[in-house]
Specification:
Blueprint lengths: L1 H14 L4 E11 L2 E10 L5 E9 L6 H30 L1
Helix pairs in contact: 1-2
Length: 93
């Protein structure tokens, strides 16, 4: 799982290089959940945005299922980054 998270983190960071100042995703396992503890700051405001996305540990029995879960999580993270960028643009216009 970590290799997939690292790869997708690098891809996302390179796509948003003009917008992101910092970006991180840490994996945790707690009480039958896999937690993706995420955070990012935009270059335009330096405000730290932190959030945790959780998935039941039993949701991914195979490597393929786990990779699919990670892809879905990263789509949610990307949506949050897009939303933060849009909100920041609206606030400055």
């Amino acid at each position: 799982m970590k290799a997939t998270v690292d790869r997708l983190s690098a891809e996302l960071t390179s796509r948003y290089v003009l917008y992101l100042e910092t970006f991180l995703v840490d994996l945790w396992s707690d009480a039958g959940q896999i937690e993706f503890r995420c955070g990012f700051t935009l270059r335009s405001d330096h405000q730290l945005r932190q959030f945790t996305l959780k998935v039941p540990a039993l949701a991914g029995d195979t490597d393929g299922e786990r990779d699919l879960i990670i892809v879905i999580i990263f789509e949610q993270i990307e949506d949050m980054i897009d939303q933060a960028i849009a909100e920041r643009r609206a606030a400055t216009n």
